[in-house]
Amino acid sequence: MIFSTEQLERYNRNILLSGFGEEGQEKLHNAKVLVIGAGGLGSPVLYYLAAAGVGTLGICDGDVVDLSNLQRQIIHTTNDLDKLKVISAKEKLSALNPDLKIFTYKDRINSKNILELLSDYDYVIEATDIFSSKFLINDACVLANKTLIRGSALHFCGQLMSIKPKESACYACLFDTPPTGEVPTGASVGILGAVAGLFGTLQANEAIKIITGVGTPLYNQILTCDVREMDFRKIAIKRNENCRVCGQKGITSLKDY
Ligand SMILES: [Zn+2]
């Protein structure tokens, strides 16, 4: 495509990057990315992807903005209380970059609707804190063969991995099934807002790398950090040939967890 003078100026600092150029910018412009969760992780993901010029963004979230969200969900403001998060987020992103196509989905994802949702996108970013959704999104991406960049943040810690279905380890290769019983949540043990900001930003970096082909994606690895000691670790993980989701006898349909 031919970028306008204004676009060339807007994206100048991207285009200058080694290995990037106008070609990299065009890949971003043509990319269709679905972000599931417009909260603590989703806020920086959405801001940075929109700023970088990812041409089509889908935002999926069923919640409305609550006062207790604002400590970390920086795409929403006090004026947005009780507003649907997808609407609040879209307003900010459209103001930041009017170049983009932004689609919103306020229905909660489930095993019946997620494949249709994914079908319009090339890449999926999982930015939810609900374990059942994390597993469902993983399964759907394996079935639909969509590259998934997943993250989580809780307490002082965060986690990041990228998944190329049937080629690299999936979420179920690592954790098999959702935890049972009482699981810690942001509402029970707290979450430092800046930790969500850090890991959401890392997810945006991963997405931009994977879309443009710059650098090495975090496939078959999981990055973790406890910010109390700034203890970043990159742990190698292996795809499980017998994984109940992506293995030889893997899933052929979806279920709700
Ligand atoms: Zn697997």
TrEMBL record:
GO terms for molecular function: ATP binding; molybdopterin-synthase adenylyltransferase activity; sulfotransferase activity; thiosulfate-cyanide sulfurtransferase activity; ubiquitin-like modifier activating enzyme activity. Its EC number is 2.7.7.80. One of its GO terms (cellular component) is cytosol. Keywords: ATP-binding, Nucleotide-binding, Nucleotidyltransferase, Transferase. It holds the Pfam family ThiF. The keyword Lyase does not apply. It catalyses: [molybdopterin-synthase sulfur-carrier protein]-C-terminal Gly-Gly + ATP + H(+) = [molybdopterin-synthase sulfur-carrier protein]-C-terminal Gly-Gly-AMP + diphosphate. InterPro entries: ThiF/MoeB/HesA, ThiF_NAD_FAD-bd, Ubiquitin-activating_enz. Residues 11-245 form the THIF-type NAD/FAD binding fold domain. It is an enzyme of class 2 (transferase). Homodimer. Forms a stable heterotetrameric complex of 2 MoeB and 2 MoaD during adenylation of MoaD. Catalyzes the adenylation by ATP of the carboxyl group of the C-terminal glycine of sulfur carrier protein MoaD. Belongs to the HesA/MoeB/ThiF family. This is Molybdopterin-synthase adenylyltransferase. It comes from Helicobacter valdiviensis.
